[in-house]
Amino acid sequence: MRFSKMYAKTLKETPKDAEVISHQLMLRSGMIKKLASGVYTYLPLGYKALKKVEKITREEMDRAGSQELFMPVLQPAELWKETGRWDAMGPEMMRLKDRHDRDFILGPTHEEVITDIIRNDISSYKSLPLSLYQIQTKFRDERRPRFGLMRGREFLMKDAYSFHANDESLDEEFENMKAAYTRVFERCGLKFRSVEADSGAIGGSGSQEFHVLAESGEDEIIYCNTCGYAANLEKAESVVKEEIVETKEELAEVELKDTPNVAKIDDVCEYFGIPASKTVKAITYMDTLSLKVYMVLQRGDYEINEVKLKNLVDETDLVMLSDADLVAHNLIKGYMGPYNVELGDIILVADESVTKMINHTAGGNKVDTHYVNVNYGRDYTAHIVGDVRSVRAGEGCPRCNEGELESARGIEAGHVFKLGKKYSESMGATYLDENGKTNIMTMGCYGIGVSRTMAAAIEQNNDENGIIWPMSIAPYLVDVIPANIKDADQLGLAEKLYAELNDKNIDTVIDDRKERPGFKFKDADLIGFPIKLIVGRGAKDGLVEVKIRKTNEAFEVKAEEVISFIEELIAKG
C-alpha cells in the first residue's frame, strides 16, 4: 500500500470527547470515525487490524472443533419471551416493530436463536456434543456509551454455543474453550489473566472472564500472590486477616445519642472515638423492575458489592433510592439504622460481617441521632444475610489460605459460561438418550469481544508517540520510508525493498508522500507500524536503517540482507 493512496487521515490534536487512550489514538491515527454516540465506522487501517483479530479467533475456534454459522441480527420477541429475558434485559435491548406491529430486537446475544435452531434439528444423543460459533455485530443500547470501542452500542463479537447430554461433557468443552481463548489472546500478543466471574444476565452455574491487563481497565481483578486463584471484584472472596484480640466485652444496653450534624461514617467515628469497624451503615436500594425496596447493612469500613447484592436478592436492576423516595418511606438520609425502625414492606439485608459485630453504632432513624451498643440477633434480625462485601487487596486468599490478595486493572475481552439448562429447559431443547428417554440438553456459551480486544491491545501497548501494535494484529508490519523522495538512490532502493517485502506477503506500506522525514516518522509512530525501514543517505552505499517501534532499537542493515532481517524480527514477534 502506498501511503499517498491510503485513506488514513491522522490528527495532531486529541478529540475532546475521547477519554481513554485507545479511543484517542484510534481517532488520531485514522482507524475509526464516529457516526453517533457509541457507533463507529472502521476506516481501512482499523478494519485491517480488526480482521486480523477476527482471523486469529476464527482459526482457534476451528481448531477447538467448533463450527461456524451466521445467525440473523433481527430476532423475534417471541423467542425472548420464552426465556423471560424480554422483560429481564430491560432498556439495554434495542427493540423495534415491523410494519405489522410485531416486536423484534437487534440481537445483543444469540442464546435464544441458537437454542431454537437446535431444538428443531437435534433429537438424539448421537448428535451431541455439538459446538457452533459466529462472528457478528451485536447491539446494546448502553445507558452511557463511552470509551470508543470499549463500551459502544454496536460492536463485533464472536459468540459460541455448545450443547451436551450431561454436565461432564459440558465441563470438558468448558476447559476446551478456556484453552482456545488462552491461545487467542497469546497469539494476539497480549498480557492477560483468566479470572472467576459472575454470570450476570446470561445466567448459568459457572463462568470465567479473560481480562487484558491495563492500568486504564474498568474492572478490578483480585488475585492471589501464592496460588492460581483470581476473580473479578464482583465475584472475589477473601479471608479477612483481622487482629485477634481476646475480649470480655459483654453486650451493653442500647442507648440513643444526640449526634448533631454527624451523618457520615467518618464523622461518627470522630464523634464517638471509635473505629469504622464498630459502625454499621445502611444503604437503600430499589429494583426498577420488581419495585421491591431493600435496606442493606454493611460494616462501616467495608463497601457494598452491588453485583453480589443483586445475586443475593435475585434482582437485576438495583438503584439507590433518591432523596424523595427516602422521604416517601419515612427514612432519614444519613441517620438510617436497623434498630427501632418501621420497615413496612422494606426488605432488610445484612452482610455476614454485621452479624458478628458486638455493640455497634448505627443510625437513630431520627435527624441528628445514633444508637450505640446495637447487636444483631438481640436487637434486630435481617430478612436476608449473605456476602455482599467487596474484597480488598491485602486480605487472605480463600483458596490456599496462605497467600495474600493483590489487585490489578483489566479490560474484559472474553467470557466463558456454563449455562446448564437455563435456556434449553425453558425452550424445550431435548434429546432421546440411548434408552429412548427424553432429556433436557445442557449448554455452554463462549464470547470474545473482537472489536474490544483490538481496543484493549492499544490500551496495553502505547506510549507518548502513539500505538505500539503487537506484530500479529498490526494493520501493516513495515513502513518503508524514503527520507528524501527526490533522491533517486533513496527512492529507487525504497521501491525495490517495498516490492520484495510484498512478494514475501509481508504487509507493507511505502511512505511516498512529499513530506518531511520527521512528519513521516511521527505518523509512523502514531499509527504504530511495528517496523520502520528508513532509506536515507546510506542508500548510495547499500545501507538502510531498521527501527523497532516497541523497543526503539535501531539497526543499520545491508540492503541485500534486510528482507531476511525483517523476517527474523517478525518470527520473534
Output the CATH class name of the largest domain.
Alpha Beta
The beta-strand count equals 31
Q: Count of DSSP helices?
A: 14
Number of domains: 3
CATH superfamily descriptor of the largest domain: Bira Bifunctional Protein, Domain 2
Largest sheet data:
9 strands, mixed
Poorly predicted regions: none
CATH topology of the largest domain: BirA Bifunctional Protein, domain 2
Question: Any idea what the radius of gyration is?
Answer: 29 Å
Question: Can you describe what's shown?
Answer:
The protein is built from 14 helices and 31 strands. The chain has 573 residues and is α+β, with helices and mostly antiparallel strands. It folds into 3 domains: 21-212 and 410-459, 2-Layer Sandwich (BirA Bifunctional Protein, domain 2), CATH 3.30.930.10; 255-386, YbaK protein; 476-572, 3-Layer(aba) Sandwich (Rossmann fold). The strands form 8 sheets. Strands 3, 7, 8, 9, 10, 11, 12, 21 and 24 form a 9-stranded mixed beta sheet that branches. A 5-stranded mixed beta sheet has the order 16-14-15-17-20. It has a 5-stranded mixed beta sheet with strand order 28-27-29-30-31, with helices on both faces. A hairpin with a 5-residue loop joins strand 5 (94-97) and strand 6. The chain is globular and about 95 Å long. 40% of the residues are buried. The mean pLDDT is 94.
